[in-house]
Amino acid sequence: MKKYILFDHDGVLVDTEFWYYRAGERALADVGFTLDKDRYLRDMGRGLSTWTQARAAGVDERTVSRQRGVRDDYYQEYLRTEAIEIEGVVDTLAELSKYVRMAIVTTAKRADFDLIHEKRQIRKFMDFVLVREDYQHSKPHPEPYLTGLKRLGATREETLVVEDSSRGLNSAVAAGIDCAVVHNDFTRTHDFSRATHRIETLRELKDIILGQPSPTSH
């Protein structure tokens, strides 16, 4: 039985990944650059940024720096106005909290995370949250999840990571922690061959942590 769960955030607990992409797409369109979604998804899986394509096409660093701020503003606008709830998450966390201790390990920036959770009930189930400012190397580097393990005082064997992207999966694998990948339409083309479990919804986690894999896990 697993005693701890380290959750990714975007795409796992809230449905934000499309809106992050959309904000970057919009910021680049403002300077006449069209962001290719398929390439963005491939870049994302490798831990590269929204700006990789633009730099390769010759967009200068001053423009990238300016539009990064524009992107951040667009993203916060979407976080305030778009429906980003994932059905069943709060009920599932309440049930899981009977069996495990939980925390969030996210590449989200603190300002975005705090905005998302101003009026949500997710944080109360978590021992702590690690945001992008809390570690040096981002996913797919193992540091974020190793930092989470240390903070929990947990062993790799006692812990399960829950992710929705190959970048996050590779971070968990590099840290030596079992990983359950939850279905997300936005990242469905990623390579999840190294996942310990594949699940459709977070509701399936209870069976996994109790050592009773659900029929859809494989």
UniProtKB/TrEMBL annotation:
<dbReference type="InterPro" id="IPR006439">
    <property type="entry name" value="HAD-SF_hydro_IA"/>
</dbReference>
<dbReference type="InterPro" id="IPR023198">
    <property type="entry name" value="PGP-like_dom2"/>
</dbReference>
<dbReference type="GO" id="GO:0016787">
    <property type="term" value="F:hydrolase activity"/>
</dbReference>
<keyword id="KW-0378">Hydrolase</keyword>
<dbReference type="InterPro" id="IPR050155">
    <property type="entry name" value="HAD-like_hydrolase_sf"/>
</dbReference>
<protein>
    <submittedName>
        <fullName>HAD-IA family hydrolase</fullName>
    </submittedName>
</protein>
<dbReference type="Pfam" id="PF13419">
    <property type="entry name" value="HAD_2"/>
</dbReference>
<dbReference type="InterPro" id="IPR036412">
    <property type="entry name" value="HAD-like_sf"/>
</dbReference>
<dbReference type="InterPro" id="IPR041492">
    <property type="entry name" value="HAD_2"/>
</dbReference>
<dbReference type="InterPro" id="IPR023214">
    <property type="entry name" value="HAD_sf"/>
</dbReference>
